[in-house]
């Protein structure tokens, strides 16, 4: 769909969400959705985007602490300039790709996605980003590659949470190659047209909207193409509770809580409880990736 923008706007150029919402109304409904329409259904009313404050002050980024407000307080210490992403493994052009060079080659567009944390809260976030497939194609995926492994930046001086063995640092994640190549999978570099804040995973983080939020690994420094299913942080921490796939699925409960509904963050204390949808509402686009798979076994 139309309405792409380069993410080089300054805070001054954009947003105020009031302006943004206005523009959306002028565009006549949700713009820039491409494959993933979230308007026009009974859910439209509950799918209002969250505010900048909600999105940037209620976070999970354990490298800065386990409290929801820790990342906003402490992520400022993280150095993000210069930044490069090492792309290696089964690729034609392995190397360190400077963030600025990546941005010069990618098409940044807006994607308004629902975001569902495994902890049963959710938001709607207007990301700016580019398709992960475009980045992988830049490096050239070799035939035989089956999975993509991701790794987060690690600096114990800058990331106070990593002084504690909450997880096995660095934070790592993974996708099957066909999941990674799916057009809904993006590398986000902005929110509401501004550069993505550090607490949300600056300067670039994965967003896989049909999976639980922990798959959407932040502040990525390394992407490795491989033929083996890569280890993932939460699976290493507790394999019974967190599978490799972690597709949003209201029918498969977490061992300690139900996944049938979610608390939509918003309005301060007045978070709404709404039903969770299969693949977070993106089933039409992604269910085919899992044809014939037992989603209880491969949770
Ligand atoms: N990435 C890293 N490196 N460290 C983390 O602790 N938390 C994950 C995911 N990515 C996490 C991470 C979890 S549990 C969620 S729900 C989302 O980031 C939260 O993203 P947000 O803070 O932008 O909403």
Automatic annotation (TrEMBL):
Recorded name of the encoding gene: msrP
SUPFAM superfamilies: Oxidoreductase molybdopterin-binding domain
Domain Oxidoreductase molybdopterin-binding: 79-234
Record's cofactor remark: Binds 1 Mo-molybdopterin (Mo-MPT) cofactor per subunit.
Family membership noted in the UniProt record: Belongs to the MsrP family.
Name of one Pfam family that matches: Oxidored_molyb
Reaction it catalyzes: L-methionyl-[protein] + a quinone + H2O = L-methionyl-(R)-S-oxide-[protein] + a quinol; L-methionyl-[protein] + a quinone + H2O = L-methionyl-(S)-S-oxide-[protein] + a quinol
Record-level Gene Ontology MF annotations: metal ion binding; molybdopterin cofactor binding; oxidoreductase activity, acting on a sulfur group of donors, quinone or similar compound as acceptor
Protein function: Part of the MsrPQ system that repairs oxidized periplasmic proteins containing methionine sulfoxide residues (Met-O), using respiratory chain electrons. Thus protects these proteins from oxidative-stress damage caused by reactive species of oxygen and chlorine generated by the host defense mechanisms. MsrPQ is essential for the maintenance of envelope integrity under bleach stress, rescuing a wide series of structurally unrelated periplasmic proteins from methionine oxidation.
Identification of the protein by name: Protein-methionine-sulfoxide reductase catalytic subunit MsrP
Binding site for Mo-molybdopterin: 59, 62-63, 117, 152, 200, 205, 216-218
Record text on subunit structure and interactions: Heterodimer of a catalytic subunit (MsrP) and a heme-binding subunit (MsrQ).
Top-rank lineage group of the source organism: Bacteria
Cofactor(s) required for function per UniProt: Mo-molybdopterin
EC numbers, comma separated: 1.8.5.-
Keyword entries, A-Z: Metal-binding, Molybdenum, Oxidoreductase, Signal
InterPro entries on file: MsrP, OxRdtase_Mopterin-bd_dom, OxRdtase_Mopterin-bd_sf
The organism of origin for this protein: Lutimaribacter saemankumensis
A biological process term (GO) from this entry: protein repair
Gene3D superfamilies, per database record: Oxidoreductase, molybdopterin-binding domain (3.90.420.10)
